[in-house]
UniProtKB/TrEMBL annotation:
Membrane-spanning residues: 15-35, 47-69
Protein name as it appears in the record: Uncharacterized protein
Key words of the record: Membrane, Transmembrane, Transmembrane helix
Superkingdom of this protein's organism: Bacteria
Amino acid sequence: MAQRPKRGLKADIKAPLILAAILAIIAFVGVFVFATGGTNNQPEIKLALSAAGGVFVVTLVVCATLIMVERPNDEELGQGTGINRRSADLYAAAKARKEERERREREQAASG
C-alpha cells in the first residue's frame, strides 16, 4: 500500500474549505434566484444565506469524515499472530504445505 506523503494542517484543510465555499456559493445563488419567484417579489436573502450556510457546514462535515476514513493504518498493525496475521503469509504457508505434500506423493508414486 502506497503511503501518502505527510502534508501540513494547512494543506489538509485548504481543499475541503474551497470545495465547501464553492458549493455554498452555488447554493446561495440558486436559492436567491429561484426562491424569489419572479422579478416582482423581494429577494429572499435570509433564506439564501441559510441555505448557503447549511451547505457549507454539511460539506465540511462530509469532507472531514472522508479524510478521517481515508487515512491508512500503520504498517505494524498488519503484523502479529492469531487473527492479526497477514493473509499473504497465510497463503504462502498453505502453498508451501501443498507443494510439499504433492512432492511427497510424487516420490511415493515413483518409488512404489
